[in-house]
Specification:
about 20% strand, about 30% helix, 5-stranded mixed β-sheet
């Protein structure tokens, strides 16, 4: 006899506990930033629903032991995690940032037509820096899983290969605004690499892989 499972949906069309995968899927499929997980008992599911999703969805033990690297430590829970997504069908880009400790989304931009994933990653980090400055969080770490974007921010230059044209003008306006912010502001927030191989998927991931 197949064992029953209970599906917790923290972020979806209607958060709650569901007793079938089909019901759960209706709440999360196509929902940007959906957060959900299966549990073996109803009691465990009910308890998990009352807790931050980051305690359950984004744990190191999601990765098989053989695939983990050593020396990465653990992510800082009091931090912001950012990520971007590029839609291969609509050809648009969007990005978002969340508080890792609570799983709460604090900003989102997009979809933006004719953008790229790397541009989205760059804009997301700068957006997080500006958010921290506005809300007086001068030392809060910011995680991204994009080495390219982290390097671009540190160089204060988005080194994209995207061609500037009439159809991409809105993207380049955002890029120039972000570059200008980096030129005009200083910050102390550490910009850190999210180590997916050790910690599991980036918590700000849009779940479209």
């Amino acid at each position: 006899m197949k064992k029953s499972k209970y599906y917790v949906v923290w972020k979806g069309r209607e958060p709650g506990v569901y007793t079938s995968w089909d019901d759960c899927r209706q709440q999360v499929e196509g929902f940007a930033g959906a957060m959900y997980k299966a549990f073996e008992t109803r009691a465990a599911a009910d308890a998990a629903l009352q807790e931050p999703p980051a305690r359950h969805v984004f744990k190191k033990d999601k990765q098989p032991a053989a695939s983990r690297r050593t020396g990465a430590g653990t992510p800082i829970h009091d931090s912001i995690v950012v990520d971007a997504a590029w839609n291969s069908v609509q050809k648009d880009m969007e990005y978002q940032g969340i508080f890792y400790k609570t799983g709460k989304r604090i900003f989102h931009n997009g979809p933006l037509a004719n953008g790229t994933n790397n541009i989205g990653e760059f804009l997301a980090i700068v957006h997080a820096l500006a958010y921290c400055q506005k809300h007086q969080l001068p030392t809060l770490p910011i995680y991204s899983d994009s080495r390219n974007a982290i390097g671009w921010v540190k160089q204060k230059k988005c080194k994209t290969n995207l061609e500037e044209s009439a159809r991409t003008q809105h993207i380049f306006e955002l890029i120039r605004r972000a570059e200008q912010w980096l030129q005009q502001h200083t910050y102390r927030n550490p910009i850190l690499k999210w180590e997916t191989a050790d910690w599991g998927e980036n918590p700000a991931d849009f779940g479209r892989k």
